[in-house]
Amino acid sequence: MELKIFRDQLFTQGKEYGFTDMELYYEKSNSLKCGVFESEVDEYESATVNGISLRGLYDGKMGYAYTENMEEDSIPYLLENAKENAVLMESDPEELFAGSDSYKKQDLYTDALDDVQPETFITFLKRLEEKINSFDPRVRHTEMTMLQRQSIEKGLYNNKGLALSERNNFLVVVASVSVEEDGELKSGMQFKVGKDFSVFDVDELAKETVEKALKALGGKAYPNKNYPVILENNAAATFLATFVSSFSAEAVQKEQSRLKGKLGEQIASQIVTLTDDPFLPEGIKSSTFDAEGVPTSKRTIIENGKLMTYFHNQQTAKKDGVSSTGHGSRSSYKDSLEVSPSNFFVEPGEASYKSLYSGLKEGIIITNLAGMHSGANPISGDFSLAADGFYVKDGKIVGPTKLMTVAGNFFDVMKDVAEVGDDLAFSPMTFSGYIGSPSLKIKQLSIAVD
User: Fold this and answer.
1) Can you give the CATH number for the domain in which 121 is found?
2) Do residues 229 and 201 both lie within one domain?
3) C-beta of residue 104 within 8 angstroms of C-beta of residue 347
4) How far, in Å, CA of 187 to CA of 125, rounded?
5) Nearest to 83 by CA among 120, 57, 118, 106
6) Cα angle at 200 between 119 and 436, to 5 degrees?
7) Are residues 304 and 200 in the same domain?
8) How many domains does the chain have?
9) Average pLDDT of the chain to the nearest whole number
10) I need a surface site. Which of 17, 27, 71, 384 has the fewest CB within 10 A?
């Protein structure tokens, strides 16, 4: 059944069921994933997933239901389940958004990316694996070359007149390698995200992947103490992503954030500004409207260290007596409303990566963080994480460290940022949004080297 016909019948029958407000959310996801190992395709998956969800107000309570089947017999199924769900709901009632005249016009979809044939992707991955394997004699083997093309089409409609739709797509390439020297094994992983396949360079990606692994060979232990630390851009992005829930009004209202009551206060170094920009051309979370149909806009969350706003959806905004910031979100059509950022990042500064450590008498560069789920508390901000990196002496990188443990508190780290690099990078390997950061120079952190 066509979406428009399904929507109209759903809203008509919904009134007969006793629903006063109704919203239909439509999502279509197309994914092509392929991987190459030892010159052979070892993974190939092409999938299309369609889904519809209903959010409806029944007897003053909001109910949810979803289905993958957009046929006539799915309409009573959705209505019955949403009605049953509404009866059980104990949370505050939600309101549907009637629409706005301030939506930004922006085409987020790259048609040329759809034109690239799977055979071209596979050839690219085979060449990438070959380049990695031949780059250096210390390469033991390529662990993985993988590519995923993703496109998402979504539509949001309600019986108040809201009718919105848009598409987005992107490509992610990931490569991983093992290297060996004198019996020591190290791995390196590199990824690239974009919308223009023509700028994905095999030689560059192979070089970055292998060099990341080679630089980790020969790690040494150094004294355990507090060091000035450079959080390299990808590590800084991963770090920020772990604590991004602290900026959610939902977390604040549930007493799950230390930022409660901190609006307008200095919570970070004066050189730190955090921005959420839903209009980034390359942003995989870019969108002109949120999951409730509220227009999105570029927001400064922290400005020169001062907390300016939380992330709000309509429900959290109503509790605080403010307007939604356009951060209503859904992980998929199966999920209820939440609050999360779009493309959230630390604004880059002017310092080059080299200049961040060149003035250090002694310090540590952290290139990678692990154990975020078990070693970090997003509520208190406390963390104790495994880390990889390098030792710096007299402004020069001496060499890699053995596996380190870095410990501290996120909110203290934000206050202790001494310099901000110019090398903004985003990490797609998070579940908190599309999170980015340049490299950050931190005054000091506790480092223990195994």
Assistant:
1) 3.30.2290.10
2) no
3) no
4) 18
5) 57
6) 125
7) no
8) 2
9) 95
10) 71
The per-residue pLDDT for 430 is 52
CB 445, CB 406: distance < 8 Å: yes
Q: Is 443 left (phi over 0), alpha (psi -120 to 50) or beta?
A: alpha
Q: Are residues 247 and 209 in the same domain?
A: no
Is the model's pLDDT at 373 over the cut of 90? no
Same domain? For 375 and 242 the reply is yes
H-run or E-run covering 355: helix 353-358
The amino acid occupying position 202 is: V
> Do both 301 and 389 map to the same domain?
yes
d(CA 236, CA 102): 34
- Do the bridges between strand 306-307 and strand 299-303 make them parallel or antiparallel, or are there none, so unpaired? antiparallel
Do residue 377 and residue 246 come from a single domain? yes
Task: Write the CA distances from 282 to 110, 191, 316, 321, 330, integer angstroms.
Answer: 10, 15, 29, 34, 20
> What string of DSSP letters covers 330-352?
-SSTTS--EE--SEEEEPP-SB-
Residue 101 in any domain: the answer is no
Helix ranges (DSSP H) in 193-299: 202-214, 233-242, 249-253
Which residues span the domain enclosing 185? 111-153+164-214
Question: What pTM was estimated for this model as a whole?
Answer: 0.94
> CA dihedral defined by 434, 119, 51, 171, rounded to 10 degrees?
10
pLDDT tens sequence across 376-417: 999 999 999 999 999 999 999 999 999 999 999 999 999 999
Centre a 10 Å sphere on the Cβ of residue 29 and count the other Cβ atoms it contains. Answer: 16
Q: Please check whether residues 244 and 385 belong to one and the same domain.
A: yes
* Residue 112 main-chain phi, psi, to 5 deg: -60, -25
Same domain flag for 202 and 230: no
